[in-house]
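Working notes for the structural subgroup meeting. M.R. asked for a predicted model of this chain before we commit to crystallization trials. I am recording the input and output together here so anyone reviewing the notebook later can reproduce the run.

Input as submitted:
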Amino acid sequence: MWLFPSVLATLVALSLALLYMGGILNPNGNLHHLPIALVNADTGAPPPGQQQNLGTQVAQAVVAGSPSGSVQWNRVSPAEAPGMLASGKVYGALVIPPDFTASVGALTTTQASVRPTITVLTNPGLGSLGSSLASQINQFAAHQASLAIGKQLTAAVPGADPTTRLLLADPVAVTTQVGHSIGQYSGLGLTAFYYTLLLILAGFVGGNLISSGVDSALGYADSELGPWHTRRLTVPIDRTQTLLLKMLMTAGITVLTTSTVMLACIAILGMGASHIPLLWIFSYCACLAIGLGVQAINAAFGGIGQLVSMFVFIALALPSSGATVPLQATPTVYRFLGTFEPARQLSGGVRSILYFDARADAGLYRAWAMIAIGAVLALIFGFAMTQYYDRKGLRRLTPQPMSEAGTGMAAGAEAGS
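Returned structure, recorded in token form:
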């Protein structure tokens, strides 16, 4: 009576601790190909004695100076960068302006009133932490480029006064701007994650409530409410028919849960959202896919089905969602889980609808595809298992005749006395 729940509870607690904390402890140390745009718009002529202008030199130094494999620098044109930010393909951008070479050269010949500038663009729609990581990387790269250019300028102007030498040593100013705005009521890019979490919980909790409610109504499980206990007569129904009933009820009740979630988030709390009809349809299909998966797992695994579905849809899914900590900043196992775990797919679709104008290439197409695949797999797995059990004659609880039950209770009472 003590051994099984003690071991199981300990293993679950250990697994949850390792899964949730293992993905967030060292984002910088786990960086792996974080996508950032690098824009060299410098059109200036190369300085005397050099073959490339300063913008090209800086771009090459930025790529060469990054730790191997940590950043995926995407060299794009000024026209391409906004589209990459607006589709969520990059976490930020480093922009070298068109007059960069000319403005740096002016420092050695005139009393320039404006310092050369490199701009760092953020993308808060991909989450505050991911955007912050990209911003830190860009600012560090720009500062290192400024110091490298400063050494050249200091050597070129040996007789400069102390104020000028101080300017020449670190000549480039770094400014930070929002590359793609997401609106005020977006939780700094976190509403997509929490809304996705609500969809998963609505599908998970709703599926389990429907499952237990149907079992109680059909007489295959007891119903307890406080001190009140009821047990209905068992309805002769096989596993496949029971699963079909649960899935049909899930499809109907999910309409209510989806509408309630959207009403609470948008109408009551004022969450920023566009494409409302699309968001509702996507939310319904996401909840339904989760609910169907819960029913299939419960039908296959029985009493421990709730624990199995908790790991599938919550324990393994949330740390690998990439919605709070970028997958590129997590250990390899989370990047692997993110290829198929539902939270990763759903958060990409929600992000696309809420922040990126419902662009298909911002994660919405992949989300729709994975929802369809997940729903089909749930149907195939669930009905394959129940039909197998039915063919093997592995029926559920067999009702005990009242006469035998009374005899058994009487015998138990005599043995106890």
